[in-house]
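REQUEST FORM: STRUCTURE PREDICTION
Request ID: SP-0412
Submitted by: Lab K.M.
Chain count: 1
Length (residues): 327
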Amino acid sequence: MGAATAPAFNAPIGVPPTLEWIPVVSIGIDPAYQRGIDNDPSQRFIRAIARDWDWSLCLPLKLARRDDGSMWAVDGQHRLSAALLRGDIPHLPCVIGRYASNCDEAAAFVALNRQRRALGSMDLFKAAIAAGDDETIEVMAAIKASGLRLAPHSNYNNWKPGMLYCAPSIQRAWKLRGPIPTKKSMVMLAKAFDGQILRFAGLLLEGLYEIFTTEGRLGSFDLMALEAALGAVPQAEWIKRALREQGSSGCSRAAAMRAAMLAAYARAGGRNPAEQKPAPVAPATQKPRRTFEETLAAVEAGEITVTDKVTMTRAAPEGIFGSSLVS
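STATUS: Completed
RESULT:
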């Protein structure tokens, strides 16, 4: 076999920069291309950096050295402003390049900002777990205990059943609605759509949060009927129903999804579970399917089995994103 062909790369552009410690008072800001920082969000950001200055978070500034020897910030003016505000940080590490003109400086500023990939909410959720954030770890454990798991990416075409990509919104519900309604909503989602790709998990959960902070708290609410009503309708149809409800009533998206779900629940004959006929006894060779109440009790008790098909343990912070989560 012949030698592998090396990938073709274009020649490097420009000359390598230098890395130097530069006095902060000697660095200029060119308003011709730099964004303004005389606004409340920027000033709050600068004060936050100055208040809790952390050298481990201070990346080198990108500077331009002009023909007259002056230094101008191309990238990093918030860090520079925070250092100046503190007054006890006389120098900052800087990567210094030379540009043919101020226009080239501005072009570098634009290119640097376009190349940045902003962290998504899922990136921050995963990072918070790695950093040991207690609440985020608790939310992740509840997701797994409900029979769900995080999708490794946002392409639902390659997800497996039970995966979802809305953990940050689950954490928001955890804070706003409380852990109990959030856990109940996740268990209901997992059971009603067992074995399905949860493309619309976030939207469906919005309606369930509404239900489990209102009607779902009542002892007379028929959880089995709700599970049956949800599972009888394709996920995409739920979105259509919620949109129709929102268009006709003008309510919020979550309230519209709740109304659509409760309408289906009523049509399914939702009533007190005590009035229902006893569930048929499963053959001795099969494991009986848990009811919603039994599943929720198992989650609250920290037991292992969550659904007929999924067996999980409460995850420790270490290895929480291991192969078992994304395989």
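NOTES: Confidence is low (pLDDT under 50) at residues 272-279, 304-327.
Reviewed by: T.R.
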